[in-house]
Amino acid sequence: MKIGIPKEATDSRVAMVPSVMKKLGDDQVTFLIEKGAGVAASLGDDAYAAVATVTDRQTVIKDSDIVVSIAPLPEADQAALKEGALMISMFQPYNDESVVPALKEKGRQAVSMDMIPRTTLAQSMDILSSMAAVAGYKAVLTAANKLPRYFPMMITAAGSIRPAKVLVLGAGVAGLQAIATARRLGAMVEAFDVRAAAKEEVQSLGAKFIEVEGAADDKDAGGYAVAQSEEYLKRQRAEVQDRASKSDVIITTAQVRGRKAPILLPKDTVDKMKPGSVVVDLASSSGGNCELSEDNQAINHNGVTIIGNSALAADMPQDSSVLFSNNILNFLKIIIKDGQMNLDLENEIIASALITK
Fold first, then answer.
1. Which residues are catalytic?
2. What domains are defined for the chain?
3. Which residue positions in the chain have pLDDT lower than 50?
4. Which of 281, 174, 176, 146 has its CA nearest to residue 164?
5. What global pTM score does this model have?
């Protein structure tokens, strides 16, 4: 069986790294990788030579039984796949209803890694969580770089500097990593999440949890946020506005799968923030938690820097690629048996991720 790794067109990450290929490659499973695929992640072709065949894109696409990529292959590449080949990528069918019908119409089979169930059994394959953790970490560093003051308290001969106040909205994987990173940098951190279960996790990291009573029950939401009532959102906005006006940095991470991200920072809240403050919106690709966010843009609104970026994981391409690769490796282990592809639909993980067959 041949597994192909093409170069990403617009992403600095690579779908698999040499150290991970080494764990799966043998006489029955071999790898093809496009020349230069890992260069942007500081992984040159020489690093792949011992574990894969480094070749041109056309060969990778037409000769592979499984093609793994971060972004879905362009139509021209999909059309060149060999019959029965499996694409593994991030198709995000919950954001675009036309994805699955289009693949079915052309008779292509595909696994969407963002459809892996967020369960304990599938945790080692959960690419969304892996990338969210990197994004949460990078969001704090991005904010610190833009903030015109220190994160930690400083006591010097020239005077004392108070610690920065950081507010994290959404305490999922990205939010918790942001909290931990901001705390390591010495900031005072507060966090809010509609999920009651997040309180203990936030407090365990040394941050203060902001409680707003009356949230909708989320115990059956599989780790995702759920839609809330307008009355609850009104009280939530009032509390967030009060906290935001006193914060130096706000990092927003709240997303509802398959729906527009909830607005947690309306324009009038941003208007109350201090000049020099920074907002990093990790939900910008699905509409943004900040009303003023523009995806993939950094704007200045009355002295407040607003950074909309849902792809911060790609700004740390080497470690992001390692984590992505490990998730892929663990999935490949359950679909490859004795060098053959075995898409067992009795397996909950495969059944969830296989969007077309």
1. 118, 123, 126, 129, 224
2. 2-119+317-356 (3.40.50.720), 130-314 (3.40.50.720)
3. none
4. 146
5. 0.90
